[in-house]
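[SOLVED] Need 3D model of a four-part complex

Original post:
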Amino acid sequence: MVSMKEIARSCGVSVATVSKALSDKPDISKPTRDRIRKVAEEMGYMLNASARALKTNRTYNIGVLFVDRMSAGLAHEYFSEILESFKKAAEESGYDITFINNRFAGQDSTYLMHCKYRNFDGVVIVSADFMDPQVLELVDSDIPRVSIDYSYNNCSSVISDNTKGLRDLVKYAISKGHRKIAFIHGERTDVTKKRVMGYYSTLRENGISVNENYVIEAKYHDIDLSYEKAKELLALEDRPTCIIFPDDYSRIGALSRMGEEKNPLPDDISVIGYDGIKMAKFVGLTTYEQDAVSLGRIACRRLVDAIENPTGICEHSVVAGKLIEGKTVKEVRQ
Amino acid sequence: MVSMKEIARSCGVSVATVSKALSDKPDISKPTRDRIRKVAEEMGYMLNASARALKTNRTYNIGVLFVDRMSAGLAHEYFSEILESFKKAAEESGYDITFINNRFAGQDSTYLMHCKYRNFDGVVIVSADFMDPQVLELVDSDIPRVSIDYSYNNCSSVISDNTKGLRDLVKYAISKGHRKIAFIHGERTDVTKKRVMGYYSTLRENGISVNENYVIEAKYHDIDLSYEKAKELLALEDRPTCIIFPDDYSRIGALSRMGEEKNPLPDDISVIGYDGIKMAKFVGLTTYEQDAVSLGRIACRRLVDAIENPTGICEHSVVAGKLIEGKTVKEVRQ
DNA sequence: AAACATTACGTAATCGTTTACGTAAATCAT
DNA sequence: ATGATTTACGTAAACGATTACGTAATGTTT
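Solution:
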């Protein structure tokens, strides 16, 4: 690897001059700067990140905590889109991203230790067990950090507006004449609580009393379970006219399965998903699209801001999504 | 950040002794080693990756080239599984992974330059435009490297057995009595060519003459296009009895869409996917499961091996998948 | 007891940068 | 012409670790 030393020798200047020339410091004359840059280019020189980091204490590297919770992992379109968007924004700001894990040299360690080791300029917590002591330790550290879809009180966060999501969906269903609206929701996380709140409040505001049989707990991304719960709803004496699924994935999966089994969903039942994955749009599913791209971008901006202009105050942003009107909610006579 | 210097001071020894004690060098007595380790632990010491890398020229960091080709990106379950598996294996071997990009300090650069900058111990090319000059430059570099699902002649590779995939699927369809087997395949990449080869050879071996109308080019992960092509096939005078789709995603999407449109697939048509994504299993789709987990693991093993025991010779592995018998291929009378 | 080997640590150079500070030459002011 | 300022570069220390080599204090051999 060619270093500044060799460029210096080749140009007959000192290493310091090379460094300053390459980083556009003002006290180098234009002729020498140009000459040095040209030689550096010719020799295929590239700055050494380790040496620079050692001296400046800046790595231009962001740690990403992305734990394959509920075995959806990267394959979960929502999270993968957030990650892609974050990555893109980070790269534009001059940062790389590296996954955080809790191993060191192949041995067990902690997330925080790993971050110290790598000297990340900042950390983003995308998908994790938010109550894991190791995660909390990281959240309580003094590393610039931001969490996505979960709010700690000592850490900036960017979260998707889940309450609005369900409010919009329920309002839409009501506008189509539905009053018997069921909600198969995910496991009881913070996100789910917000959605359930939105569900209840919107029904209440519209003078619709909630049938508790219509609110069923399932899991995110669990096709089997959603399928079972949907069948339970359909078997009810007073069955709903509209079913909101935990997410698009389980909705599409559950109904596909019914289709393969030649027991398709009855014609008079409307269905709604959540997330706004691509496939949902392709098949015409009515859903609520979370703005994953904005979530990633805003999270990155917050983090880079916290790194470059540290104030210590943490800010919480809420990102709205939008309803996608598909063809799966039918008009119902009152 | 607490460094070895402070531990040395606190223990009344030299920095060298601390370094040797922490890395279990033999010439430190057990008492001092234990004392140093205890103090290091108490002070919350962690090794500094940059300093170590600078001195040893080893970063224990692997660069991942993962370009969002055909806008499937991380959300493509096949690739995300490979990546997860690779990541896991890398972590077990003591390596972290960082995404490669072609920017430096927010400016345009090249993949190779980025790798030089970060000093990756090795590089894996997972999903990229394999003919991109920048990728070729990386492939031709002297960085230990491995490519997945594409074989360069100067770079180790791990590829999924695409020919076997189609051979198995076609053989299965034939065993169920089908002779009119259509293949909607993806864009003409290397992978696709292998699959098409498998398709043709198996039909030929079974004495079935190929109806060229049955071989149609579409795209991977393109629901709309697969949907259109499937309809074209169904509109043929002599229509096929079995359709192989480019992948599970487009198959499920296309048929879901037909379902939503209340023009479901005729009962006498069999369908087959490719990839073995989770949803495919949930809905009972007959498909060919690529062994993404093995692909990732083997690729990592190859790479780590190339890093730690450099020989210069490159090896190519082919990973077999397996047919998943769902319920979407019906028995047909001869 | 002299010679030698072993043990356990320290010394100092080094990796590739950055940067505060020093300095010589050129330019300017008076 | 003298002193002050500016310009353009060099010097050297520092970041935090690693490691070849040196060395003092022990232990071992004959």
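Edit: The first strand of chain A starts at residue 61 and ends at 66.
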